[in-house]
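Subject: design request, 210 residues
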């Protein structure tokens, strides 16, 4: 049964009230703990937020409320040059090539959110039922990251390109590893791989914002 937005808000309110009253909270249903979900889904500091911010940093016409690192602003003219002709999308700029895996990474977190409990905006979907979604994410991530490598963009981003590609390759490998955990119905392994993706997302964010 899918609860209405009002019902889900009521559930979240009850959880917050219990915490304010000092009541002990039972373990959450699903593979993730509260600490895990804070790391993954916190609206300000979670891994999904970080992937979204990185994507927007590469937008030429980004929201003025989003402040990108000064070094990246200085690189935007160079990143606006077309460097790859896609058979479907035409010429893509260097910035768009970097955005591609970041968009897929955000999609990964959006799919994963469906496994979260109701009070965290999810539906407690079993990871195994999302196998096709993860397979699609896996294929798109491999394509977008492989393209960065094949176009030799290691020297991009003011010399940060090599490290960024290596981070994204590690993220891609972890997403690929999710397939085994889904087939085995192993929630523990699914959780470990998901949190590893989050860890590499934070590393990538740190690399590109320092």
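Subject: RE: design request

Done. Sequence follows.
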């Amino acid at each position: 049964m899918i609860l209405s937005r009002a019902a889900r808000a009521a559930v979240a309110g009850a959880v917050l009230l219990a915490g304010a009253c000092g009541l002990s909270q039972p373990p959450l249903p699903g593979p993730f703990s509260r600490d895990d979900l804070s790391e993954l889904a916190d609206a300000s500091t979670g891994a999904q937020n970080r992937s979204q911010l990185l994507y927007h940093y590469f937008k030429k016409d980004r929201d003025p409320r989003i402040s990108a690192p000064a070094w990246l602003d200085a690189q935007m003219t160079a990143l606006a040059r077309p460097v790859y002709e896609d058979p479907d999308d035409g010429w893509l700029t260097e910035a768009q090539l970097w955005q591609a895996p970041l968009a897929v990474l955000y999609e990964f977190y959006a799919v994963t959110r469906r496994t979260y409990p109701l009070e965290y905006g999810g539906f407690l979907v079993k990871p195994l039922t999302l196998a096709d979604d993860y397979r699609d994410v896996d294929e798109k991530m491999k394509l977008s990251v492989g393209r960065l490598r094949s176009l030799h963009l290691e020297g991009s981003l003011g010399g940060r390109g090599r490290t960024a590609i290596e981070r994204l390759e590690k993220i891609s490998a972890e997403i690929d590893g999710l397939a085994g955990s889904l087939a085995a119905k192993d929630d523990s392994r699914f959780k470990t791989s998901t949190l590893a993706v989050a860890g590499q997302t934070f590393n990538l964010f740190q690399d590109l914002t320092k």
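The longest strand covers residues 82-86.
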